[in-house]
């Protein structure tokens, strides 16, 4: 049985001296693990379409629940990202997050669209990396069931709270903090809160239709990163590398 899918390569794992396993986030079938025969050979016809972060169309042969690539054609390679080490590291972090948040054979077209839009933002729109990073982290959290409550202090309803609880995903005033609570809080400004609300609730086609100051963006990036890491209870090697090349 043959299956044609469009997907973005999230990870490549060596299988043997000739073959590799690809983790692909597809449009209609969610995350798939497929075998790429001969990919590790010199001059393999699959090389371009099976690169990390390549968005390609794959013709798969399915047998007993296992998929093998029969043909692959490149749709988009995001070349400006590949020529920039920091953008490549950041994009690899996006791919690692997508792999964690997606599931085998469960469609997640919104997550795939978010990933593609953010890669396009880095490659073609040349948007600031902290902006794209913040949008990806917050929106990915929302799509995966971790939508934060951003409408006022969860205790008193004050619309200008000073803190964001990373574990509970809600806002609170300093005076409303319970002594029994052990959750980690981060300070949040009015401008950062407005940006967070926009990212979480806006139309997907308008994700990058906002601008904030450099200072606000720096804090927003820290908030978004900390929130996603807290909810997922894990870190990412590509994010660590991205931070190391920024120094």
Structure description:
- With 247 residues, this protein is α+β, with helices and mostly antiparallel strands.
- The protein has two domains: 75 residues, OB fold (Dihydrolipoamide Acetyltransferase, E2P); 168 residues, de novo design (two linked rop proteins).
- The protein contains seven helices and nine strands.
- The strands form two sheets. It has a five-stranded mixed beta barrel. Strands 6-8-7-9 form a four-stranded mixed β-sheet, covered by helices on one side.
- Strand 7 and strand 8 form a beta hairpin.
- Helix 5 crosses helix 6.
- The longest helix is centred in the last third of the chain and has 19 residues.
- The termini are far apart.
- The mean pLDDT is 93.
CATH superfamily of the largest domain: Recombination protein O, C-terminal domain
The top level CATH class name of the largest domain? Mainly Alpha
Q: Tell me the number of structural domains.
A: 2
Residue runs with pLDDT of under 50 for 5 or more positions? none
Helicity range of the residues? 25-40%
Biggest sheet character: 5 strands, mixed, barrel
Q: What's the quaternary structure here? A: single chain
Mean pLDDT: 93
From the alpha carbons, calculate the radius of gyration and give it in angstroms: 20 Å
C-alpha termini separation:
50 Å
Give helix and strand order, one letter per element, not per position.
Answer: EEEEEHHHHEEEEHHH
**CATH 2nd-level architecture of the largest domain:** Up-down Bundle
Strand tally is: 9
Q: Quickly count the helices.
A: 7
Alpha-beta content class: alpha+beta
CATH topology of the largest domain: de novo design (two linked rop proteins)
Strand content: 15-25%
Strand order of the largest sheet: 1-2-3-5-4
Estimate the global geometry from the Cα principal axes. elongated
């Amino acid at each position: 049985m043959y299956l044609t899918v469009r997907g973005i390569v999230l990870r490549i794992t060596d299988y043997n001296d000739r073959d590799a396993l690809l983790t692909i986030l597809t449009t209609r079938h969610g995350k798939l693990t497929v075998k790429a025969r001969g990919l590790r050979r010199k001059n393999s016809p699959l090389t371009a379409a099976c690169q990390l972060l390549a968005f390609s169309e794959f013709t798969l042969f399915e047998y007993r629940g296992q998929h093998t690539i029969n043909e692959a054609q490149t749709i988009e390679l995001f070349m400006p990202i590949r020529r920039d080490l920091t953008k490549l590291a950041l994009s690899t972090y996006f791919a690692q997050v997508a792999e964690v948040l997606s599931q085998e054979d469960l469609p997640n077209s919104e997550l795939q669209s978010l990933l593609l839009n953010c890669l396009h933002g880095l490659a073609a729109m040349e948007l600031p990396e902290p902006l794209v990073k913040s949008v990806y982290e917050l929106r990915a959290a929302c799509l995966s069931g971790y939508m934060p409550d951003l409408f006022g202090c969860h205790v008193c309803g004050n619309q200008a709270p000073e803190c964001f609880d990373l574990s509970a995903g809600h806002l609170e005033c300093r005076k409303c903090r319970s002594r029994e609570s052990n959750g980690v809080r981060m300070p949040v400004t009015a401008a950062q809160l407005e940006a967070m609300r926009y990212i979480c609730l806006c139309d997907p086609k308008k994700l990058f239709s906002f601008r904030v100051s450099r200072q606000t963006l720096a804090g927003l990036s820290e908030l978004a990163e900390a929130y996603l890491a807290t909810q997922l209870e894990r870190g990412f090697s590509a994010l660590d590398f991205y931070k190391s090349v920024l120094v």
